[in-house]
Specification:
The chain has 577 residues and is an alpha/beta fold. Helices cover 42% and strands 16% of the residues. The strands form four sheets. The chain has a seven-stranded parallel β-sheet with strand order 3-4-2-5-6-1-7, sandwiched between helices. The chain has a seven-stranded parallel β-sheet with strand order 10-11-9-12-13-8-14, sandwiched between helices. It binds adenosine monophosphate (AMP). Adenosine monophosphate (AMP) binds next to helix 3.
């Protein structure tokens, strides 16, 4: 690894970047900085956003400025206003210990008068969006005839946004002698054409593989029918309690609709699209950047200006039209050595499209199963417990309240306290996920496999695995099997629960239910009462021996004293008192 010193950077620049926390060079910097300092050559760098490009071109540009004249020497073109401001800020930070250098950002959507005033003071480096730059050139506030370096940052984005004619116009106004540094995440034909037309003998470097999603990103898709898109989104979001993501939509209307629904459903989300005013967009982006907002629902165009490094996920609520766009979207996660996940919600009609994207990005996009209600609840539960373990406790301030709290909760044992504490937050998830249905579309392959398995299976249906539940009520409460079955159906609101053997004793009952639904039944009965007393329902300590009900429908009432079970009874007594 070459250090910044060995690359030949000035001590003033090194001091400034050290203060910014740059300890070692990132790959794109290792490849470009020594080359740019040593040779006056054109350069094409294929690198995703977030790989350290700004310093890769910015540091050599700052080092090589000729301050003997007043000409604008470097022009940096970027697709969006936000990127423009960010580049100008970054350069200003790198230049902190150099003699004053005027770096002026000019971009659309802001007062041209202020920009004119700045330019009149002289601009050594201009960072610009193409449209506003041309406007200011025509008004003669900018003269780019003497520039020595032209940087085209995110060239693919600029062309994608329709700046091709503007770029041709700008490039033809620049001197032959300048060098051009082109940075792009992908290399579509249009970018190649620019390189061929305007850049003689460029040095080409590639950081990561050409036209591929970043290596730190895993790609998944879920197959659902179109009306279930939103349900799928919610389950995905719920499955990742720490999610920090952009959710990409197709249109402004869809963006607003999804964001509004998420907000209504209690998520920390907001929308970013072109129908918002610039001030509204700035506000949303600011909240997202400083993580006050967890989910940003956005269109591709609106999200362009947003540069956020530590996204955990990128979600394609709708697939983009082009593979390039997929690449751009997913390149927003998995940055700065962190792992990220790109998740696409795909309908059967779009299945071919996802295959094409997969071929184009040369990375596998794995078909996933939407998390089940149980999996989601488990994840949320452990997240909550984890948060509780790591919460900052203000011992001094809380101390004075503790005696009253202790007194109020004295009747509860530790188990009960934990159960209740967890339920405060958790009931919302349990309520929502108790009866959810599968929304994954069964693919042809899966259905073929299932048919094959069905055929291979013995004709007699195997009994499902059963779990024995303890119910704290018995024949002394005048319960009969039919009443118990009805009680389970009413309480779980789920008729799919399979009920097996029922053993009724004096004041407790053992009911075998299929294991897939056992926890659901227990959870549904949390806090339930029967004829005025708290009804305890829990997994019995004594499970069926082979865990398979031999006779799913047998019921028995044990009136004989010797049949009385001696276990599981403590709870009922305690609850009744
Ligand atoms: P960029 O691709 O220029 O937007 O850079 C992405 C992020 O990496 C920015 O937050 C930079 O400040 C940061 N960065 C750039 N170079 C380095 C480096 N050598 N060491 C640590 N961080 C860096």
């Amino acid at each position: 690894m070459i250090t910044f010193e060995k690359m030949g950077l000035r001590p003033e620049l090194i001091k400034a970047i050290e203060e910014l926390g740059f300890e070692k060079a990132m790959p794109v910097q290792e490849e470009t900085i020594p080359e740019l300092l040593a040779y006056n050559r054109n350069l094409i760098a294929l690198a995703q956003t977030g790989t350290g490009k700004t310093a890769a071109f910015g540091l050599p540009v700052l080092q090589q400025l000729n301050t003997d004249n007043k000409h604008t020497e470097a022009l940096i073109l970027s697709p969006t206003r936000e990127l423009c401001i960010q580049i100008a800020n970054d350069l200003q930070n790198y230049a902190k210990y150099l003699p004053a250098i005027s770096i002026v950002p000019v971009y659309g959507g802001a007062s041209i008068e202020n920009q004119k005033k700045e330019l009149q003071k002289g601009a050594k480096i201009i960072v610009a969006t193409p449209g506003r730059l041309l406007d200011l050139i025509r008004r003669k506030y900018i003269d780019i005839r003497h520039i020595t370096t032209l940087v085209l940052d995110e060239a693919d984005e600029m062309l994608d946004m329709g700046f091709k004619d503007d770029l041709d116009d700008i490039l033809s106004n620049t001197p032959e002698s300048k060098r051009t540094l082109l940075f792009s995440a992908t290399m579509p034909k249009e970018v190649e054409a620019i390189a061929n037309n305007y850049m003689a003998d460029p040095k080409e470097i590639t950081i990561g593989s050409k036209n591929s999603g970043t290596e730190n990103v895993s790609h998944f898709y879920y197959l659902v029918n179109a009306p279930n898109r939103y349900l799928a989104l919610k389950r995905i979001v719920d499955f990742y309690p720490r999610i920090y993501a952009i959710i990409f939509c197709k249109t402004k209307a869809e963006t607003q609709e999804v964001a509004t629904s998420l907000i209504k459903d209690g998520y920390n989300a907001d929308a970013l699209h072109g129908d918002l005013s610039q001030a509204q967009r700035d506000h949303v982006m600011h909240r997202f950047r400083c993580k006050n907002l967890q989910l940003l629902v956005a269109t591709d165009v609106a999200a362009r200006g947003l540069d956020v490094n530590n996204l955990s996920h990128v979600i394609n609520y709708n697939l983009p039209a082009e593979s390039e766009q997929y690449n751009h979207r997913s390149g927003r996660t998995g940055r700065a050595d962190k792992r990220g996940m790109a998740i696409s919600i795909v309908t059967p009609r779009e299945a071919l499209k996802i295959k094409k994207i997969q071929e184009s990005i040369k990375q596998e996009i794995t078909l996933g199963k939407i998390p089940t209600g149980r999996e989601i609840c488990e994840k949320q539960l452990f997240h909550m417990v984890d948060e509780m373990e790591h919460v900052n406790v203000n011992y001094t301030e809380i101390e004075s309240f503790l005696p009253v709290i202790h007194k109020k909760l004295a009747w509860m044992d530790k188990e009960e306290l934990i159960r209740r504490f967890v339920s405060v937050e958790f009931n919302r998830f349990l309520d929502y996920y108790r009866n959810i249905k599968d929304i994954d579309v069964v693919t042809k392959e899966e259905s073929r496999k299932k048919n094959r398995e069905e055929k291979e299976r013995p004709t007699r249906k195997a009994s499902p695995s059963m779990t024995r539940l303890y119910f704290g009520l018995g024949y002394s409460d005048r319960v009969v099997p039919q009443r118990l079955i009805a009680l389970i159906n009413e309480t779980t609101k789920n008729r799919d629960v399979r009920i097996g053997k029922i053993d009724i004793f004096e004041d407790e009952t053992h009911i075998d239910v299929d294991s897939d639904h056992a926890m659901e039944v227990v959870n549904a009965f949390q806090g339930a009462t029967y004829k005025g007393f708290d009804l305890v329902v829990k997994i019995s300590k004594h499970q069926p021996k082979d865990n398979f009900s031999k006779n799913p429908s047998s019921t028995k009432t044990h009136k004989n004293a010797k049949d009385k079970p001696f276990y599981d009874r403590f709870d009922r007594k305690k609850r009744r008192n």
